[in-house]
Write a structure and sequence with these properties.
By secondary structure, this protein is of the alpha+beta class. The chain has 2 domains: about 325 residues, no CATH class; about 100 residues, no CATH class. It has 16 helices and 9 strands. The strands form 2 sheets. Strands 5-6-7-9-8 form a 5-stranded antiparallel beta sheet. Helix 1 crosses helix 9 and helix 7 packs across helix 9. The radius of gyration is 21 Å and the shape is globular.
Length: about 450
């Protein structure tokens, strides 16, 4: 299983591709910067983010959990299925790419080491490509689906493959493939939101050429390091988006917001928990990368790519990152049926698990002393097809363990087949099974 945040990242970022899920902005009001905030940023800071100081920082990640539920996974252009924007000559997009590259080099402080291959696809071909990418990961998605259903993150009757197809079709207008080193773009008319998309994805190419985003060995690990790298990469891109927008005129910013509102995709039926998980690398990554840059400069930020956070705790709380607090090893709990997957559950999912029931502030406090955990999933029940999961947690202190147990007990009371126990004095365990026929997810977020 690995870390659930890593799993969501793996199956939606599909075959090591850094997909522009960030393009889903416009649909999440809670986490979105508004024009007034951007204008305030523009007036308070004009220092290049690749220079000696950053743009205006978000609140510190040591404050209560900074990902709204649901959250905005970025601030680049959304795209509804069957985009009706006029098609564009690929040469127009390629010329815009060349215009943006020097801006990125100047303001990020890195240089492109090689040309970036740009593939501009007609909308129908682009949509087929996205569907094919999901199908290639069907087996991995099925593994992730078991734990997500077992703990009620998604309803028991959710088809996660089809859900992810809907997410990609609704929200992706371009992506950078860190395996083929190719920028793939839907060939439709450029607007301000599309230009910001190009900047965001070109930054991933710049990161990859200098700092190596294609590291499949991280995806094979069962901890959260792949999620940590994603948070650094997307947080850096979000950081640059803020500066990009400060350079726009008032008219351009107004057009950007109008583009996002007009093109906001339909995500009805998408479980809010899934959207919050998708948003986490962006919403948590931005304040973390800003804090890293402010404390250690560009060299320190670049080093964070080389040695990324290996727990979601280090992403949620920057003090844990700077202290490089290690994860406490927790033995895998037993499965009561044929095992499907296992790995670190993590502080991020712990917060997202209990917060909808106990409240965001209480949920953050309950998870704040996270020390380590291990989760396991299996198919059980009389039919042998019921999604089940179990997680064992250890916390930093006895008080932390008591607080988590209290929050989990409140959560379990809302779940039809969930239990909480202490198998050892220093371990709290939650077990949950969710019938495929429905239930779960309705009251999650």
């Amino acid at each position: 299983m690995g870390a659930a945040p890593r799993n969501i990242d793996r199956t939606l970022v599909i075959v090591s591709i850094v997909l522009a899920i960030a393009l889903l902005s416009g649909l999440f009001v809670l986490g979105r910067r508004n024009a007034e905030e951007v204008a305030s940023t523009a007036s308070s800071s004009t220092t290049r983010p690749g220079g000696s100081s950053t743009t205006q920082r978000s609140p510190s990640t040591t404050e209560p959990f900074p990902v709204p539920i649901p959250s905005a996974p970025g601030s680049t252009t959304p795209r509804p299925p069957g985009s009706t924007r006029p098609r564009v000559d690929p040469a127009v997009i390629e010329a815009e790419v060349e215009r943006i590259k020097p801006w990125l080099e100047e303001n990020r402080g890195l240089r492109f080491r090689a040309p970036v291959n740009v593939s501009v696809l007609p909308p129908e071909e682009f949509d087929v490509l996205l569907v094919d990418l999901v199908e290639e990961e069907r087996a991995n998605i099925a593994k992730d689906e078991v734990m997500l259903k077992a703990f009620g993150f998604i309803p028991g009757d959710t088809d996660l493959v089809e859900t992810q197809k809907k997410l990609l079709a609704a929200g992706v207008a371009g992506f950078y493939n860190d395996e083929s080193k190719e920028l793939v773009v839907e060939g439709v008319e450029l607007n301000e939101a599309a230009r910001e998309t190009l900047m965001h994805e070109l930054l991933h190419a710049l990161q990859d050429q200098n700092l190596d985003l294609n590291r499949p060995e991280l995806d094979e690990r069962k901890d959260e390091v792949a999620f940590g790298l994603r948070a650094i990469a997307e947080g850096d891109a979000k950081r640059m988006e803020v500066f990009w927008e400060t350079q726009l005129s008032d008219e351009q910013r107004a057009e950007l917001r109008a583009n996002e509102e007009e093109m906001a995709p339909d995500v009805s039926g998408i479980p809010p928990a899934l959207l919050a998980m998708l948003g986490a690398p962006y919403e948590l990554g931005r304040p973390l990368t800003e804090e890293i840059f402010e404390r250690t400069g560009q060299a320190g930020l670049d080093e964070a790519f080389r040695t990324p956070p290996d727990t979601s705790e280090q992403v949620v709380r920057d003090t844990k990152f700077f202290g490089r607090e290690p994860r406490i090893e927790v033995p895998p709990p037993p499965a009561d049926g044929k095992q499907v997957d296992d790995g670190v559950f993590g502080e991020l999912l712990t917060i997202l698990l209990v917060s909808p029931i106990v409240g965001q502030s209480t949920g953050d406090k309950a998870a704040k002393g996270w020390g380590g955990d291990w989760g396991i999933s299996w198919l059980g029940g009389e039919d042998g097809n019921t999604p089940c999961g179990r997680v064992d947690w250890k916390m930093d202190t006895t008080t932390d363990l008591d607080e988590l147990e209290t929050a989990l007990t409140t959560w379990a009371a809302r779940m039809p087949q969930a239990t909480v126990e202490r198998p050892q004095p220093d371990v709290v365990r939650a077990t949950s099974c969710m019938p495929q026929s429905g239930g779960g997810g309705e009251s999650r977020l």
